[in-house]
Amino acid sequence: MTAKNSLPEFEQRSLEQVAEKHGLAMILFFGSRVTGKHRFNSDLDVGVI
């Protein structure tokens, strides 16, 4: 599966390690940070499969 990714490489590697450690097939990001409408204090919405 190909995904659009704008994360810095070190963050990408860290997330890949977390996914592997916990047997996750996918990590999904959604909400204002994905749409570009976040503010300085916005949270990061994450879903896992």
TrEMBL record:
<feature type="domain" description="Polymerase nucleotidyl transferase">
    <location>
        <begin position="14"/>
        <end position="49"/>
    </location>
</feature>
<dbReference type="InterPro" id="IPR043519">
    <property type="entry name" value="NT_sf"/>
</dbReference>
<dbReference type="Pfam" id="PF01909">
    <property type="entry name" value="NTP_transf_2"/>
</dbReference>
<dbReference type="InterPro" id="IPR002934">
    <property type="entry name" value="Polymerase_NTP_transf_dom"/>
</dbReference>
<protein>
    <submittedName>
        <fullName>Nucleotidyltransferase</fullName>
    </submittedName>
</protein>
